[in-house]
Amino acid sequence: MSIKNKLVEQYKILLQDKIDIYQDLIDSLTDEAQNDAKSSAGDKHETTLSKLHIEQEKISQKLNEALHQIQILSKLDVEVKSERVVLGSLVFTNHLSVLIATALPKTIIDSNPFFAISPQSPLGIQLLGHQKGHIFQLNKIEYQILDIL
Length: 149
Hints:
Blueprint: H1 3-39, H2 43-75, E1 90-93, E2 97-100, E3 104-109, E4 112-117, H3 122-127, E5 135-138, E6 141-148
Parallel strand pairs: 2-4
Antiparallel strand pairs: 1-2, 1-6, 3-4, 5-6
Helix pairs in contact: 1-2
């Protein structure tokens, strides 16, 4: 399995774990609201339901974001190779290695750190469309594209 395959699969697992947690939290809040409705009445009941509903909305937004991110990763063709940086490229620079896909935290594959970044991020914008050897500055740091997978 290629390094890019390993990276994408590891990020999919991370996102699926998040999705499962968010769905469990939403289910738990729904059960809590139903139980509260059976045992409470009055202003305290309305306040509790309102708080539960707000929390459920926040978690639903996080769930939707994770679902969107896993959808982006699922659409990537990890076998495609390009001489220019495109969506799905794994880019090695003199400072870090990044997957151009969606913003995700640092992960380690075969003892090497990797990041997943959005193509709309400042670094993503600087990388997109460029070839191996391209040099640019971002936040007073000089980057050079060493390789593209």
